UniProtKB/TrEMBL annotation:
Domain Amine oxidase: 16-446
Cofactor dependence: FAD
Family per record: Belongs to the flavin monoamine oxidase family.
Signal sequence extent: none
Gene3D superfamilies on file: FAD/NAD(P)-binding domain (3.50.50.60)
The protein's name in its UniProt record: Putrescine oxidase
GO molecular function: oxidoreductase activity
InterPro entries: Amino_oxidase, FAD/NAD-bd_sf, Flavin_amine_oxidase, Flavin_MAO
Residues annotated to bind FAD: 35-36, 235
Amino acid sequence: MTEITRDVVIVGAGAAGLTAANELKKAGLSVAVLEARDRVGGRLWTDTIEGAMLEIGGQWISPDQTALIETVADLGLDTFSRYREGDSVYVGPEGTAHRFTGEMFPVSPETEAVIARLTERLDAMVAEIDPDRPWAHEKAAEWDSVSWDAWLRAQTDDDEAVRNLAFATGSAMLTKPTHAISLLESLLMAASAGSYSNLVDADFILDKRVVGGLQQVPLLLAERLGEDVFLNQPVRTLEWSDEGVTAVADGMTVRARQAILALAPVLYSRISFVPALPRLQHQMHQHLSMGFVIKVHAVYETPFWREKGLSGTAFSPYELSHEAYDNSNHGEERGTLVGFVSDLNADGVFELSADERKQRILTSLSHYYGPEALDPVVYYESDWGSEEWTRGAYAASFDLGGLSRYGKHLRSAVGPIHFACSDLAGAGYQHVDGAIRMGRLVAAQIVDEVRA
C-alpha cells in the first residue's frame, strides 16, 4: 500500500475536481486526485464506437457558460457551431410531423397564446431566483411543496401547452417525471441558464461543441497535473478530524490537511466516513437522487436530413425520443443524430430486449426524419444509469420539499471536508460550466483558509 502526503486530496477526476486541483497547485498547495475509474472526465466521455467518435457524456456549450468558455480558450481548444440550417420538426398529439422555422412550433393559436403567457410569467418568476440561493426566496417553501406538473395544470387546462412547458425542465433537463420535481427545482434549473426562455431555446443551450470532443477539457486539465492524478483508486474510507484527513483507496493512502469530494452526491455513501458525517448530511443526501436519460447516437453514411431541408432539430412530448439533434462531428462526411429518452420512457424501454429497444427508439426518430433514420451504420446508447461511478444523468436533484429544506447546507464544509460538483452549482447547474465554477469556488475557499 503506497502512502503519500499532500495539502489537499481530491476525490474524483471530473471537471470540478481537476479544476480545483489546478487552482490549488497555482496557489502553491500540493494535491492528489484519486479517481475510481480507469479514465478522467467523470460525466464527460468521448469514445470511438465501431469507428465513430461519439460524445457519450456532456458535449454542448451555451453563451452563458463563461467559466467553461474561459477554460476551453485557456486549453487552446477550438469550437464549432451546432448545425441548425433548415426546418425543425415538431410531432403533435395526433402523431403528425410538422416542419417549422423560428422559435414557436406549430400549435393552435390558442395553445400558442397559453405557452407565451406562461413563458412570460415563468421568466418573471425565474428573474427573482438567485441560482446560488433559491431557498432564500420568500415563496421558496410554497414553490417547493407543489410539483412542476401540478403547478402548470393549475394555470391552464390546455394539455398540449402543459406538456411542452413541462418537459423543458422535467424530461429534458432534470430527467425525472414532471410530477416528481418541485416548481422551485424547475425554477432553479431555468435560473441556472439565465431564464426559462434561454432554457427552452435549443439554439442557445446547444450552441457550440468542442472539435474532438468535450472530454478534452478534463484530459488536458489532468495533463497539467501530471503524476498527481491516480486512476483506478476508488476511495473506500475517509478518516477526518480537525487535524486533517486520511483517504484510503484500493491501492494507496493519502494523508492531507483537507479533502474535496468532487463526485455526485449519490456516491458519497460509497465512502465510509470515520467518524460518520453529521446527521444533517445523512438526511440531506437521502433526499437527493439522479435523473435517468438514455442518450442515443445514430450514425449514417450522410446527414440525409439536410438534403430534405431539415436542421436536425426535432422534439415532441408525445414521442419516445422527446428531442433529437444533428450531432455530426466537425469535418466529417457522415451524419450523426443524437436523441434522448428519459425518465419513465427510459424505464420502459429497458424492460425490452436490446434489439426491441433499438427498434422502438429508431422508429421514434423516423417519425421526425423519415424512414432513412431506421438504418444507421452505427447505433449506441449512453446508459449512465448503469455506470458504477455515476448511477444516473444528468445530475442529482431534490425530491419535493428538499431544496427549500436542505439547499442552504449543500455546499457547507464538514470540518476539513469540502464538496464540489456540477450537482451543487447555481449558475451552470448540472453542466460542465457549473462543475468548473464549483471547483474554482472550493479551491478559493481552501486557499483563503490556509492563508488566514
